[in-house]
Design brief:
The chain is an alpha/beta fold. The protein is 40% helix and 11% strand. Helix 6 packs across helix 9, helix 7 crosses helix 9 and helix 8 packs across helix 9. The protein has one domain: Ribonuclease H-like superfamily/Ribonuclease H (Nucleotidyltransferase, domain 5, 2-Layer Sandwich), CATH 3.30.420.10. It starts with 6 loop residues before the first strand and ends in a 20-residue tail after the last helix. A hairpin with a 4-residue loop joins strand 4 and strand 5. Strands 1-2-5-4-3-6-7 form a seven-stranded mixed sheet, sandwiched between helices. The protein has ten helices and seven strands. This is Exonuclease. Pfam families: DNA_pol_A_exo1. InterPro entries: 3'-5'_exonuclease_dom, RNaseH-like_sf, RNaseH_sf. Keywords: Exonuclease, Hydrolase, Nuclease.
């Protein structure tokens, strides 16, 4: 599967014009570019839920990430990103604006985003689900199920030391198939976003709560989630039956741990491999 950077599709969702056209990334080898839709009204949610219905379960169609200020039970959720690989649409759900309505609003068939996130029969791919689960459960009571964790899949298929897990940036840099042009644009977008939100770069995570969202933050939120299918296909092809079972068990353990009173979402301990994996 080849996934490129998104462009804006004005329906459904907020109509948006990029002030800097260079931020709209294109792949010359692909005609069916993914579209980027911002979901910040109840009407937009109806369109989103329609777009998430009757999707193929294998390979997974839903690739999800979250952004926020100190994303955890002690922080906030600002944006929930969904890339639908089967339709090549990227949705940025404005949790900061919509609040609980983002998860409780139902379509005509009764489906909600909460139902999708909690359904064990609808596969959803995250990268390191721990803090995402912590934040979703603490703030909105969402019990994630049907989760595949790319961080664990990478570790399970690694042929060298399994002592530490990798971060998403390293996985995309080393494992996501990219053309030289894509790689340059990915790095430029990543750096532009980090300069705005990373305190060590002089930024602030509050940029995720500024409305309207800046062009740089929109593209930062969209691009990483669009690379997740490339990682999934690479790691899935390498997985053996025994490691699939171990990954599945560890994902469930991560979700249970993330909802516990003692869970700490920050610290060096998060870089350690699961017990017995090293």
């Amino acid at each position: 599967m080849s996934v490129t950077h998104g462009i804006f599709d004005p329906s459904p969702g907020l109509e948006y014009t990029f002030s800097d056209p260079s931020l709209i990334f294109r792949a010359a080898s692909l005609d069916d570019e993914p579209s980027l839709l911002i979901i910040n009204t109840v009407g937009d949610l109806t369109g989103l839920l329609k777009g998430l219905s009757d999707l193929p379960a294998w390979p997974p169609s839903l690739f999800i990430d979250l952004e926020g200020t100190n994303l955890s039970r002690n922080g906030t959720i600002s944006i929930l990103q969904i890339f639908v690989s089967s339709t090549r649409k990227t949705y940025l759900v404005d949790i900061y604006t919509l609040g609980d309505k983002a998860f409780s609003h139902s379509a005509s068939d009764g489906s909600t985003l909460r139902f999708i996130l909690e359904s064990p029969s609808i596969p959803k791919v995250f990268f390191d689900v721990r803090n995402d689960s912590d934040a979703l459960f603490a703030h909105y009571g969402i019990n994630l199920a049907g989760i595949q964790d790319l961080q664990l899949m990478e570790l399970a298929t690694r042929t060298f030391s399994k002592r530490f897990v990798k971060g998403l940036g390293k996985c995309i840099e080393y494992d996501a198939p990219m053309t030289p042009s894509e790689r340059a644009k990915w790095k430029a977008c990543k750096d532009a976003g980090r300069n705005l939100f990373a305190p060590e770069c002089g930024g602030s995570y509050e940029v995720f709560n500024a409305r309207p969202l800046s062009d740089e933050i929109i593209q930062y939120c969209a691009q990483d989630v669009q690379f997740l299918p490339r990682l999934w296909h690479k790691y899935d092809q390498r997985m053996t039956g025994n490691w699939r079972l171990r990954v599945e068990a560890e994902v469930k353990r991560r979700i249970i741990l993330s909802k516990s009173v003692s869970y700490n979402g920050n610290g060096r301990h998060k870089a350690l491999a699961p017990g017995g994996w090293a």
